Amino acid sequence: MIQNVSVIGAGTMGRGIAFACAFANLSVVVQDISEQGIKNCKQYIAQQFAKSVQKGKLTEEQAAQRQESVHYSLSIEDVKAGRLGKKTGKGFYTYT
Questions:
Q1: What pLDDT was estimated at residue 75?
Q2: Which residue, 7, 62, 79, 94, could crosslink 85 as a Cys pair with Cβ 3.0–4.6 Å?
Q3: What is the pLDDT of residues 60-82, one digit of tens each?
Q4: Per residue in 23-56, is it b (16+ CB within 10 Å) or e — as a string?
Q5: pTM for this structure?
Q6: What is the mean predicted confidence (pLDDT) over 47-62?
Q7: Rounded CA gap, 37 and 2, in Å?
Q8: Would you place residue 92 in the very low, low, confident or very high pLDDT band (cuts 50, 70, 90)?
Q9: Torsion sign, CA atoms 23, 25, 45, 48
Q10: DSSP 90
Q11: 3-class secondary-structure state, position 41
C-alpha cells in the first residue's frame, strides 16, 4: 500500500495532487525549482484544508495533522522516499 508520495512540480496540477494525497492521509513531499511555487503550494493546501474544516469533512485536528504531513523542497534529492507522481513531461507521470 502506498504511504509516501512525491510530487514533482508545485503548479496547479502538482498542488492539487499534493492536497488530494494529504487529504487521503498520505505523507507527501512536494518538490519545485521555485521558492514562489512552493509558497503558492503551501497557501493553496492551507486554504483547501480550511475549506474542508468549514464543510465538516475534517476536524481542525485532522486538518492540521494532514497539513503537517506535507513537506516541501527545492531539491529533487528529497523526493526519493516517495512512490507516486514523478512528472516526465506534458501531463505524463511514471509510477514506481
A1: 84
A2: 7
A3: 999 999 999 999 988 887 766 55
A4: beebbbbbbbeeeebbebbbebbeebbeebeeee
A5: 0.82
A6: 98
A7: 25
A8: very low
A9: positive
A10: T
A11: helix
